[in-house]
Specification:
Blueprint lengths: L15 H4 L4 E8 L4 E6 L12 H26 L7 E6 L2 E7 L4 E8 L4 H19 L12
Pfam families: Robl_LC7
Length: about 150
């Protein structure tokens, strides 16, 4: 018997309020193990990544999972094994990427330009998670068993 992965519906439509915040470029909902659950881009973007397609969103999902795992191990090293990671922020010369816990087994990542008010973006991320966090959550995957 083999395990199965349940295909979840695309949750990108839930991210529209975030992509309407000034300075926000892209938003992605990510499962804890790095799978893209949904994504959205702001309207009328220009620049090198004007539209976040599925391949880019899947790459961002994998990077988000790696960042949160690194954050978890760093928090455990500094604060003990039970310390969880609530938020992370990455700054580059082109903008910011904010990661936050978005429910059981899920994270939310938002990419902004340099002109974004990151405090406002973080606040709106928390508002969205509080409002629809249960829909952003993912359960554990079915374990894969030995194949016959």
């Amino acid at each position: 018997m083999t395990g199965s992965v349940t295909r979840l519906p695309d949750l990108g439509w839930m991210l529209r309020p975030l992509t309407d915040v000034p300075g926000v470029r892209h938003a992605v909902v990510v499962s804890e193990d790095g799978f893209r659950l949904g994504h959205a881009s702001a309207e009328d973007l220009t620049g090198p990544v004007a539209l976040l397609g599925v391949p880019e969103a899947e790459s961002l999902a994998a990077a988000c999972a790696a960042m949160t795992m690194t954050g978890r191990s760093t928090a455990a090293l500094l604060f003990g094994g039970g310390a969880g990671v609530r938020q992370l922020m990455l700054e580059s010369e082109h903008g910011f990427v904010l990661f936050t816990h978005a429910g059981a087994g899920a994270h939310l990542a938002v990419a902004t330009g340099t002109d974004a008010d990151v405090g406002l973006v973080a606040q709106q991320m928390q508002v969205l998670v509080a409002r629809i966090g249960t829909r952003l959550s993912t359960g554990p995957r079915d374990p894969a068993g030995p194949s016959s």
